[in-house]
């Protein structure tokens, strides 16, 4: 007796069921492997402020993660996933983010015009810059692709309670992974991207007489300046006694426009800080990847409690242990969590570590040779000269905030370039910013405040 005949329709059904079974089995087993892998490793969230034992520029990966085989330092994970090569030029890429697809009719006209300017300037370069706009719904899939090997970063991004926090975090993440220029949608370029000082050979050829600091080499002037790997501008330089009532920091660095090489260690420190702060501060930790909690050592727990930053730290009536939600996260939290406050803090911490742990750092600041047309030092960086030199010659040399105050010329510290306030904030008519047609004006910010939506 032969086997019963099976109809074509039945055969199709059997094949489909088998395919679905195989797909389910593969996904289920992959999830099990991922869960076992990530949980078997574990992650320690290290401090980014207490780094006296580390050289952040030349990180010793083998000696840094000393927590045993089953715990890995987040800093080491990031450095291993995105190694920094200072010899590689800054990628010719422009990144922007927006809520929706730019072709949508609901696009704000001023935003659309700004975007078109970036696309035009990108395409006009030779070779052209690659322009990429990432919409909100594209962020998570892209981060899963880029940061799959550092899943705690994705977990932190998903857990951020407000869109502005995610927008801030994403700009650092995309630059760390891919490099290039990031600029907010309410900005537009004023000059060709290739004219920025970060790519100007004439600027580098003019660099002379590097600033000396405690324990620096005697032959600094014989060393060759590094091509910038991280480029920022001054956002705020409030030269007034009541500055703390209006700004987060006396010198505040701009983060609506940033240029960077991929893997830059300064961004690594910033991403480590934001990841740890988020996982320690939010009420609702979310994750599309099955992960156990990351570990923060008890003696540094307050480093990553956003309620223990800036003025809130000293407010005795504030509930410092309350976890953050969309409802109780305010502007001060944003400033010190992902915004210009923590951005500026990490920059100073990184720069100070670099000159304390290395004796061959080139520091160029032509603003220390400037006297105004009336022969006065009062409204130039020279006003702070004594404090600047004193801090550089301390046993633990550091950059006094006045080093970046009242500047009109670019500053280069190792491969970190700082541009004057005019570069990314021309026309604001305060704090020494000059007009849009100034030779140091490169990006215009129209302050649409779209991040509030």
UniProtKB/TrEMBL annotation:
Keywords: Glycosyltransferase, Membrane, Transferase, Transmembrane, Transmembrane helix. GO terms for cellular component: mannan polymerase complex. Signal peptide: none annotated. InterPro entries: GlycoTrfase_DXD_sugar-bd_CS, Nucleotide-diphossugar_trans, Och1-like. The chain crosses the membrane at residues 12-30. The keyword Glycosyltransferase applies. It holds the Pfam family Gly_transf_sug. GO terms for molecular function: alpha-1,6-mannosyltransferase activity. GO terms for biological process: protein N-linked glycosylation. The keyword Membrane applies. Belongs to the glycosyltransferase 32 family. This is Mannosyltransferase. The lineage of its organism: Eukaryota, Fungi, Dikarya, Ascomycota, Saccharomycotina.
């Amino acid at each position: 007796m032969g086997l019963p005949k099976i109809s074509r329709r039945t055969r199709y059904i059997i094949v489909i069921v088998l395919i679905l079974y195989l797909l389910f089995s593969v996904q289920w087993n992959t999830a099990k492997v991922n869960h076992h892998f990530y949980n078997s490793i574990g992650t320690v969230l290290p401090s980014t402020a207490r780094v006296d034992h580390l050289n952040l520029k030349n990180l010793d990966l083998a000696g840094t993660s000393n927590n045993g085989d089953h715990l890995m330092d987040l800093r080491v994970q990031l450095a291993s996933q995105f190694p920094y090569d200072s010899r590689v030029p800054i990628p010719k890429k422009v990144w922007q983010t927006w809520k929706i697809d730019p072709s949508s009719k609901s696009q704000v006209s001023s935003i659309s015009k700004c975007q078109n300017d970036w696309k035009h300037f990108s395409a006009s370069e030779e070779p052209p810059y690659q322009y990429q706009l990432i919409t909100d719904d594209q962020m998570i899939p892209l981060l899963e692709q880029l940061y799959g090997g550092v899943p705690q970063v994705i977990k932190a991004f998903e857990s951020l309670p407000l869109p502005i926090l995610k927008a801030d975090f994403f700009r650092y993440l995309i630059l760390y992974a891919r490099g290039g220029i990031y600029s907010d949608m309410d900005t537009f370029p004023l000059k060709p991207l290739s004219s920025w000082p970060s790519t100007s050979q004439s600027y580098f050829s003019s660099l002379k007489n590097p600033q000396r600091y405690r324990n620096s080499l005697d032959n600094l002037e014989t060393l060759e300046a590094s091509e910038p790997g991280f480029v920022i501008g001054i956002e705020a330089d409030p030269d007034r006694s009541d500055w703390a009532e209006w700004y987060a920091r006396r010198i505040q660095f701009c983060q609506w426009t940033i240029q960077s090489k991929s893997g830059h260690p300064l961004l690594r420190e910033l991403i480590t800080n934001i990841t740890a702060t988020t996982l320690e501060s939010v009420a609702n930790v979310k994750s599309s990847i099955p992960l156990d909690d990351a570990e923060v050592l008890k003696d540094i727990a307050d480093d990553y409690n956003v309620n223990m930053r800036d003025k809130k730290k000293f407010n005795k009536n504030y509930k410092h242990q309350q976890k953050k939600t969309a409802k109780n996260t305010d502007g001060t939290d944003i400033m010190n969590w992902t915004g210009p406050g923590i951005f500026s803090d990490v920059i100073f911490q990184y720069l100070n570590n670099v000159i304390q742990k290395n004796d061959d750092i080139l520091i160029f600041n032509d603003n220390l040779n400037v006297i105004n047309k009336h022969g006065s030092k009062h409204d130039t960086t020279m006003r702070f000269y004594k404090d600047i030199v004193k801090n550089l010659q301390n046993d633990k040399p550091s950059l006094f905030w006045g080093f970046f105050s009242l500047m009109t010329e670019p500053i280069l510290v190792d491969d970190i370039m700082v541009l004057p306030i005019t570069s990314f904030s021309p026309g604001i008519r305060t704090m020494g910013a000059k007009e849009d047609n100034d030779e140091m004006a490169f990006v215009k910010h129209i302050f649409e405040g779209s991040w509030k939506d």
